[in-house]
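Still learning. Any example?
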Amino acid sequence: MGWGCGYRTLQTLCSWVESLNKVATGTTSPTSVPSINQIQTALVDIGDKPSNFRHSKQWIGSVEICLCLDVFYDIPCKIIHIEKGSQFKQYCSEIFHHFVNVGAPIMMGGETDNSSKGIIGVRLKNPALLIADPHYFGTVNSAKHLLELGFIHWLPVSELHEDSFYNLCLPQARTPVKSNKS
C-alpha cells in the first residue's frame, strides 16, 4: 500500500500528542501512532470516506487530519483557510501565537502546492515557516543531519505559490490527552 505525505504529517502530529502523554505520565515505554490502515479505516468509519478508500493510495489533507486527531485523541483542531499564498504573511502572527499558547506542530496543505508540510516554527521578521518535511524516511541520526539534508528548513512565505490556497490544521491540545486508538 502506498502512502502520501499527508499521512506522514498526521503521524508526526500524533507522535507529538503521544510525547505529551509520555511526559505527563512519566512513561518511557515506546508509543505507537496510527498506521495508514488505521487512519483510512477511521475516515471510512466516521463516514468521511467511502469504503473503497480503505487500502487505497488516495491522499489526505488538513480536513482529514483534523478529523483523525479528533477520532484518535479527542483533540479539536482549528482549520485556517488562506485563499492565496500571497496573503499568507498576514497569518504569521496567528501561527506564532499558536506556538506560544499551544505548541503543537501544524499541518499545511495546498492546492497547486499540494505536498503536505509540517510547520514546527514561524519567523515574524522576514516571515518564514520552519518546515519538517514529511518526505524523509530512515533513521534520524541527529537534527543536524536532517538540516543538512534539507528535511528541516526555513521556507520564506514569499516562496509559497501566490495563487494557491492553503489549509492549515492547528491542533488545540494543550495538556495530555486520551488515546482512542484501537
User: Anything to note?
Assistant: The chain has one domain: 5-171. The first helix runs from residue 5 to 25.
